[in-house]
Design a protein that fits this description.
CATH superfamily of the largest domain: von Willebrand factor, type A domain
Number of domains: 3
CATH class of the largest domain: Alpha Beta
Largest sheet: 6 strands, mixed
Shape: flat
Number of helices: 10
Distance between the termini: 75 Å
Amino acid sequence: MLGYRFNAYEAKPDDLFNRLLTIFKQLITYTSGDVDEAIDWLRQLDKEYELTNPDYTIDDFINELKEKGYIRNEPDNQGGLAITAKTEQLIRDNALEKIFGKLKKSAAGNHSTKFNGKGAEDLSDEIRAYEFGDAPQNIAMMQSLQQAQINNGLDEFKITENDLLVFEQEYKTQTSTVLMIDISHSMILYGEDRITPAKMVAMALVEMIKRKYPKDSLDIIVFGDDAWPITIKDLPYLQVGPYYTNTVAGLELAMSILQKKKAGNKQIFMITDGKPSCIKENGGYYKNSNGLDRKIVNKCLTLAAACKKSKIEITTFMVANDYYLQSFIDEFTDANQGKAYFTGLKGLGEMIFRDYTNNKRKKL
């Protein structure tokens, strides 16, 4: 009689490296690119969960990170470590997969969109129900056959118009987007980390646009007491500061950037968790974080209306659920005729991605 002897599974060094790398990618995002802090966290996790073994330790992992070009020694000879461009790309890829990967796995045609793709130039990977007038070459044959089987069964198999599914179409309209990220101090208040999800969304959005819509432009700006642009390379290192919220400065900079663009669609995505509390005035700052200061609010509303006049839609993603702020957001959204979401942190990435791809289908 033949038999098999089973031994306990032992992870190979490559398996351990990839497992630790997955954790390291997350930690380096939370620590805003601080390798030494991320390694400290990794050592603590190793003590608690026994991630490594005597044959492959955290020190072995660090050496392999260096050998494979993920980290390097700081050039100042002070013994610190820094991530490389390879790791910056890696964590952008990770952000894209964590956020956009969820969308790709969702059922075809789950979400409705205000704009049809009829008459467009490119087929997308999204599928919807057939409508009269859709081109026959756009029919998703395999998916339609599967739908017919589900609807009618195999015993009396038939395919009808109601079973047909078609690939959605996308216009080639170029889109220019400015992503505004609030880095005021409240983005880490009350023990809630709101800046890390905002960074993840920004990194994922950059990667999606580069891969799927290379003719589009994405500019990223941050706003606290002032507003300034940041580069893709800056994203992993983004941190909040001891700032108030100068929404006006952010909108002014975003408008300035978009007015120079020639794209047909222009839009601003604003991620914020609080009310505007600061404006520049007479060469200094006027700050008031108590309630909704009408002077500050009115400046925001004026800029929202100016964006509407320039055909720039503003979509606000409020990553907080404070009820009393809704009145300001309602006023602001009405002045721009844009959109607003009170999202909390859950689902932020999915909402922004759906909004971006739906806006790509607008026929101008």
